[in-house]
């Protein structure tokens, strides 16, 4: 209600009402510490009726807040104010899938098969991630799916490739006990998307969410719901008793996917959402324009699904129905596209290396230095989302970052460092010692630099003795390391009225290009997070996603499904290396580079943490900070060989011709999990104020 406007809940100032729903009111707020807009969902007061409901709210809200996944809305905080539970979430600027589908129907548009497969795959990734933690959504529906991008989303045209798909309200339905009264009692969910077991009021698990995902799939393909009626009760009865209406004009393989996803018996459904997504892609036989070729025929469900011996790690207290061991399909060992032979990958890499060496031998050292600074690397992609139609082994870039040496006043050479420029989010801190005074009648001015971008003045500096100390805070609160990678101290006239930088550079500094590439990629997906939060959340989320797909590879081998093992092996490799790496590729031969992670790469996050911890410790000069940084570096250096070994094992999976080749290999893979090791790594950061440092050296013309 409107009485919350103007109040502050924790660190969030409530600004205006955005909407009202059956279980909560949603407000626009501003987080006073993060200085960013957020969404505040204040749940209805019936949650405060007894202590057990409040305890359940806290337990489930804490579990949901711990999730880090690119397709799940980020919960920032939760608490209870005036007996009203509330949840603070990231603000999603976009359009709901419900509204997108509704507008498309009004325009007479049907979604393209590529779009349907993309949406289902994104949601399946989110659901598998949550189910692996024992968290069941209970209310999966288009209204709880947000589509967002930097530009507009027009339902009149195909969905752009750079759209983010974000599943919202995880656990809120159960927290809020959003109920529909029926003759059989109280149930939770939305009638049109509810599984038969939900309707019956039985204990549910992740397969109930998979049923709801199947309803969304049916709706996207047909433009209508499979079960509809004049009353809620009539819809609920149809979920239990009526057969699935055939899709109009559907090919048998696609109908088989729908039939299995919407099986009345949970044991006959897909047991993982990602299996539904993979079967859909195969059944749709997507055209070459989206890169999918020679998809295998979908096999109808078998009635003798067997449970694998391995079980998910579930925290029972998170949900009232702990997720059961995951069954796997006993399907024929079919090949979904041929894996690209590793021999040809090696030949291609060798050929490229020979060409590079020959090219360098024909150039002078000065030309080589110029080329190394002016040619964009594959890591200079700043797209916010992952593209699925990139050529194998290549990375695309929305912004070409080049440097023309003739335009830059900074040149190579000089003595050792005299200090450091430190990037810490929207602040740059400069500390120099042993600096020479400027020529008579002139002064030093400090600048942040970036190739082909106007330098940003940090102001004229004051020299005390031979020391310069300066702190610059950006008035727009932008993350400075996301926009600038260099530093210059220029010589300017004392009475300088020209706002531009002069050509006389006395001191300079520049980030290594590989670090620039990593930071730009990370900040392009961080959406306003601080350096610390982006790195730590990235490590936590990607380590979990990595572990899940290592397990998925192993489980697929146990189930006798070599194509699925190859798919998850590709996922693991791409989760590790990130989409700007030359190793990011289509390893299972289906024509697409797939990555259920955020695209940054677990390896990238670890290296940024190592670098930023070292810079922070060096700048503080505190012995305790240095010990922390050393410990972080040691832990990172322990984890990197593990994920590298897993990457090599997964490469062998993608190259395998039979399951017999993988018996010993999956035993090795089972020892290469890292989530348990990244947790103490993240915790060890403690109060260390992470930052990115640049060494400043004299400029030698």
Brief summary:
The chain is of the alpha+beta class and 701 residues long. The chain has helices at 51-65, 97-106, 113-131, 172-176, 196-199, 206-222, 232-241, 252-261, 273-284, 342-361, 365-374, 513-526, 531-558, 562-577, 602-620, 623-655, 663-669, 675-684, and strands spanning 8-9, 12-20, 24-31, 36-43, 75-81, 84-90, 94-96, 145-148, 164-167, 179-182, 185-188, 306-307, 327-328, 419-424, 427-433, 442-450, 453-460, 467-473, 486-493, 505-510, 692-698.
Structural class: alpha+beta
**Radius of gyration in whole Å, from Cα?**
28 Å
Low-pLDDT regions: 175-187, 287-414
Q: Any idea how many domains? A: 3
Major β-sheet strand ordering: 17-16-19-20-21-14-15-18
Proportion of beta-strand residues: 15-25%
**Helical content class:** 25-40%
How can the largest sheet be summarized? 8 strands, antiparallel
Quaternary state, please? Answer: single chain
The average pLDDT value, as a whole number, equals 76
Shape: globular
Number of extended strands: 21
Number of helices: 18
- Measured between the Cα atoms of the first and last residue, the distance is 66 Å
Protein described:
With 701 residues, the protein is an alpha+beta fold. The protein has 3 domains: 1-91, Phosphorylase Kinase, domain 1; 94-328, Transferase(Phosphotransferase) domain 1 (Transferase(Phosphotransferase), domain 1, Orthogonal Bundle), CATH 1.10.510.10; 333-701, no CATH class. 37% of the residues lie in helices and 17% in strands. Strands 17-16-19-20-21-14-15-18 form an 8-stranded antiparallel sheet. A 6-stranded antiparallel sheet has the order 1-2-3-4-6-5, covered by helices on one side. Helix 13 runs antiparallel to helix 17 and helix 13 (531-558) runs antiparallel to helix 18 (675-684). It is globular and about 90 Å long.
């Amino acid at each position: 209600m409107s009485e919350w406007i103007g109040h502050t809940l924790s660190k969030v100032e409530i600004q205006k009402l955005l909407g009202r729903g059956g279980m909560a009111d949603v407000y626009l707020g501003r987080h006073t510490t993060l200085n960013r807009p957020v969404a505040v969902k204040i749940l209805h007061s019936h949650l405060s009726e007894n202590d057990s409901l409040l305890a359940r709210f806290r337990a489930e809200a804490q579990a949901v807040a711990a999730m880090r996944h690119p397709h799940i809305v980020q919960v920032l905080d939760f608490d209870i104010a005036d007996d009203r539970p509330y949840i603070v979430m990231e603000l999603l600027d976009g359009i709901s899938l419900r509204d997108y589908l509704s507008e498309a129907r009004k325009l007479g548009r049907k979604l393209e098969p590529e779009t349907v497969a993309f949406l289902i795959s994104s949601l399946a990734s989110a659901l598998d991630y949550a189910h692996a933690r024992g968290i069941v959504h209970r209310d999966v529906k288009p209204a709880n799916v947000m589509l967002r991008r930097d530009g507009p989303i027009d339902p009149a045209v195909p969905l752009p490739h750079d759209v983010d798909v974000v599943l919202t309200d995880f656990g809120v339905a159960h927290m809020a006990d959003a109920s529909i009264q029926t003759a059989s009692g109280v149930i939770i969910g939305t009638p049109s998307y509810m599984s038969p077991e939900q309707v019956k009021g039985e204990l549910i698990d992740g397969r109930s969410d998979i049923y709801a995902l199947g309803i969304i799939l049916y709706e996207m393909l047909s433009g209508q719901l499979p079960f509809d009626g004049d009353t809620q009760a009539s819809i609920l009865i149809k979920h239990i008793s009526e057969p699935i209406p055939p899709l109009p004009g559907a090919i048998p393989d696609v109908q088989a996917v729908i039939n299995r996803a919407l099986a009345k018996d949970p044991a006959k459904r897909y047991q993982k959402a990602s299996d539904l997504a993979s079967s859909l892609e195969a059944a749709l036989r997507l055209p070459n324009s989206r890169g999918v070729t020679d998809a295998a025929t979908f096999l109808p469900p078998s009635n003798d699904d067997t449970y694998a011996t391995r079980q998910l790690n579930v925290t029972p207290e998170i949900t009232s129905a702990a997720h059961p061991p995951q069954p796997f399909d006993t399907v024929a060992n079919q090949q979904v596209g041929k894996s690209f032979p590793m021999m040809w990958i090696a030949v291609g890499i060798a050929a490229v290396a020979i060409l590079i060496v020959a090219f360098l031998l024909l150039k002078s050292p000065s030309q080589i230095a110029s080329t190394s600074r002016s040619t964009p690397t594959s890591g200079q992609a700043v797209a916010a989302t992952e593209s699925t139609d990139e050529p194998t082994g290549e990375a695309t870039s929305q912004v070409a970052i080049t440097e023309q040496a003739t335009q830059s006043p900074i040149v190579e050479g000089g003595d050792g460092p005299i200090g450091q420029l430190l990037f810490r989010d929207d602040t740059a801190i400069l500390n120099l010692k042993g600096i020479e005074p400027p020529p008579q009648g002139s002064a030093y001015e400090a600048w942040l630099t970036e190739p082909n971008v106007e330098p940003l003045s940090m102001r004229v500096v004051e020299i005390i003795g031979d020391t310069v100390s300066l702190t610059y805070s950006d008035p727009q609160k932008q993350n400075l390391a996301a926009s600038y990678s260099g530093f210059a101290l220029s010589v300017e006239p004392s009475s300088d009225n020209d706002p531009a930088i002069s050509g006389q550079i006395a001191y300079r500094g520049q980030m290594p290009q590989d670090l620039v590439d990593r930071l730009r990629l990370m900040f392009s997906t961080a959406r306003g997070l601080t350096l610390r939060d982006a790195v730590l959340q990235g490590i936590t989320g990607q380590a979990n996603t990595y572990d899940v797909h290592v397990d998925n590879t192993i489980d697929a081998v146990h189930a006798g499904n070599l194509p699925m093992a190859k798919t998850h092996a590709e996922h693991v490799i791409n989760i590790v290396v990130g989409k700007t790496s030359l190793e990011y590729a289509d390893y299972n031969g289906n024509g697409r580079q797939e990555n259920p992670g955020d695209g940054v790469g677990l390896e990238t996050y670890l290296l940024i943490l190592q670098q930023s911890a070292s810079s922070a410790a060096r700048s503080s000069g505190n012995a305790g900070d240095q010990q922390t940084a050393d410990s972080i570096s040691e832990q990172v250096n322990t984890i990197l060989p593990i994920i590298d070994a897993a990457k090599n094992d997964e490469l062998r999976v993608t190259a395998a011709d039979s399951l017999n080749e993988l018996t010993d290999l999956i035993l090795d893979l089972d020892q290469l999990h890292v989530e348990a090791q990244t947790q103490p790594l993240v915790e060890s950061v403690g109060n260390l104020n992470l930052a990115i440092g640049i060494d400043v050296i004299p400029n030698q013309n």
